[in-house]
Amino acid sequence: MSIIVFYVQTALWSPPSFDGGLNLNVARSLLEGTGYGSYYNGFRLFPIETQTNAPYVFPAALAFGVLGVGLLSSQVVNLGYVVLFALALYVALRRRERPAVALLAVVLAVQAPGMAEYAMNGYGEVPALAFLFAALVPLARALERGARLRAAALALLGGVALSLSFLTKTVALIWVLPVSGLFALLALGRPGRWRLLAALALGLAGPVLLWEAYRLLSLGGLDAYVGWWMPQIGEILSQSGVESELQDTPGVLAKGWTHLGLLAEQTGTPSPLLLLFWLLPAPVVLAMLGADLRAGRYGRLLVLGSVAGVAAAYALWWLFVTPTEQAWLRRIMNGLVLQEVTILLVATACARAAWSGAALPRRVPRMLPLLLVPLLALPLAALGFNGQLVFRSAEPPPAVAAEVDVAEAVAALPADARLFGKGWWQAPVVALLSGRRIDDIETWSPEAVRAGPGSYLVWDRYALALAPGGLEELRRLYALEPVFRSDGGAVFRILPVQPEALPSDRLQRVVDLGTEDYPHVAGVHPREAGYRWATPEVTVTLERRSETRVAAGVTLVEGVIGLDGGSAPDGGPVMLRLSIPGCAEAELPVRKPGAYRIEAPITCPATPEPGPVTVRLSLNSRIDPARAAPDKRVLGFLVQDIGVWP
Q1: Among 35-39, 195-199, 238-242, 375-379, where is mean pLDDT lowest?
Q2: What sections of the protein cross the membrane (predicted)?
Q3: Which of 69, 255, 330, 346 has the fewest C-beta atoms under 10 angstroms from its C-beta?
Q4: Residues 370-392 pLDDT 10s
């Protein structure tokens, strides 16, 4: 009961997450009749940053229409999918186990690490997983009913559910393909096999084709449709780790070990227990699948094979393929849920075998499955303890709850006010709850921002926590007057005047970051004894009037990935880049450790009065984390002076 209370209270008290806000703004646009898209610096159909799609977004639009836009309506669809997931999991496991075991699996699954945050709050992971188990129920029954017409209808229904899971989250391909393939192999041994396979294929293809037809018509033609898909394919490949320029750990084994350590930190479970968690059930699962195959229990085999196989696929993908920069708990959470269910099924089978002995091969001692039960239970108990919701409060942290106050402050601004975010920091939750449109200040000239009836900067809790340098950068360009502040964010009025720099805050033309503490820089670590480490990307704001070139000095040390004849993480040569956006740009290939100097001519005309310029210095590589250990910081190079020169 306390678990149910937790989820209901979350729906009543918590605003959605940043990513959830992106998803739900599309639902709001549908409700308002503007189409399947969202507004940020203009209205865009099918925004690429929205990673949860129609099977979640359309019900959310319906919830907004019935309940209005608020906390409950932004969470109620997630709550409904949690219920669907629990019911579908229970019914699917009843193909193999007694009610008590199936119910215990549900209790464990809804408390898996990450579920408290990612089952709700506008995320699509659990809705997609709910469709997986909803598919296993009819597919397992179809295999048990042979070639009857009803079996084909069940296969069709299962295919539709798998298709809906893919339409919810593209990552569902990790189970759509293997589950469909396993069903097809098992169906080949049944009468009416071709009818079953045709029904499954129709169920898989139908919803996807209808959705793509809707997208094609909404975008207005084939050219726009192809133009939308091209960057989307690149984004999918990048996010999955197949082709990615994101920060990563070199070497398959080193990457797997690094990610295992990250998972230990994220779940609060020691790495040795996680190794038991992922590896120990495998031989027993194979034995159970073999027994089901020999006995012709194809429905039971499909359920266990799908759950265990997809859990293994998740582990391999997250540990060895996904980029280290995105090795988040959210991306492995569904795999943890599936592996917990697998371990429970395996432990139950071992306990049953130890009790009766009837299911054991002759040469397997009866004590072996009895010993396996506590070994399987140990990691399951550790993960369950760290994810438990029984004693966890659903009351949101102050910063999360205060985001509602920020939205109310934004809603109360004058109707003709222009609201701005900065780059990625678009305050989607504030935009959703306030009903106001936000533009990207980076695409506007300072003169245009200052002009007009009134301009405001919306800086939500995510920007406060993750982009503190962004606010300081804007203060160099704009005079910002706070009109609202809280733990959940801030709102600033952008005054129609030039900002005034304080004497201690003045910009410099040249700065030696190795020896100076300069406030207008991002991407560097604290100074040490005469030197300073930088991340692979440094941004510094300098003063410039008539200077004609920009230059920087750096030192690359042993351990940078790709030096001495190798390749950078992006597959190309290791390269230093220096730029002033729109005014200067230079690249310098580097092949070995040492001191380097890079400079570029400034092509923008001189200005009568000194003004700020943003200089970006970057390296397309980094220090190998294994070489940097135990230092866990992201290290790129040692930075020295950066400046503009006559």
Answers
A1: 238-242
A2: 60-93, 100-120, 126-142, 149-166, 172-189, 196-214, 271-289, 301-320, 332-355, 367-385
A3: 330
A4: 788 888 889 888 888 877 877 78
Highest mean pLDDT among 87-91, 252-256, 477-481: 87-91
Check the CA dihedral 177-183-187-193 and report its sign: negative
Cα angle value 184/196/124 (rounded, 5°): 65
Burial category of 99 from C-beta neighbours within 10 Å (exposed 0-12, middle 13-18, buried 19 and up): exposed
pLDDT at 504 over 50: no
The whole-chain average pLDDT of the chain stands at 88
Residue 317 to residue 92: CA distance in whole angstroms: 25
Q: How many CA within 13 A on the CB side of residue 98? A: 5
Q: Helix-strand-coil percent breakdown of the chain, rounded to 5?
A: 55, 15, 30
**DSSP E strands, 145-258:** none
> Alpha-carbon distance 245 to 620, whole Å?
9
Q: How many CB atoms lie within 10 A of CB 630?
A: 4
CA distance 325 to 533: 19
**Residue owning tokens 């699954």:** 109
Task: Give how far Cα 232 sits from Cα of 46, 99, 226, 227, 238, Å.
Answer: 10, 43, 10, 9, 10
Q: What pLDDT score was predicted for residue 330?
A: 93
Phi-psi region of 405 (alpha: psi -120 to 50; beta: other; left: phi over 0): alpha
Q: Give pTM, 2 decimals.
A: 0.77
Classify strands 455-460 and 418-421 as parallel, antiparallel or unpaired. Answer: parallel
Contact present, 583 and 615 (Cβ < 8 Å): no
- Measured distance CA(353)–CA(368) in Å, rounded: 10
At 522, phi and psi to the nearest 5? -130, 150
DSSP string, 435-489: T--EEEGGGS-HHHHHSSS-EEEEEEHHHHHH-HHHHHHHHHHS-EEEEEEETTE
Contact indicator for 260, 271 with CB cutoff of 8 Å: yes
User: 606 with 584: CB under 8 angstroms?
Assistant: no
- List, in order, residues 6 or more apart from 227 with CB less than 8 Å away: none
Helix (H) or strand (E) holding 591: none
**What is the average per-residue pLDDT within 249-253?**
84
Output the CA–CA distances (angstroms, integers) from residue 169 to 56, 526, 551, in the order listed: 9, 40, 45
Task: Please give the Cα distance from 77 to 366 (Å, whole number).
Answer: 48
User: Which of 114, 92, 90 is CA-nearest to residue 104?
Assistant: 90
CATH, domain range 503-645: 2.60.120
pLDDT at 460: 92
Residue in the structure block whose two tokens are 């909404």: 218
Location of structure tokens 């000239």: 445
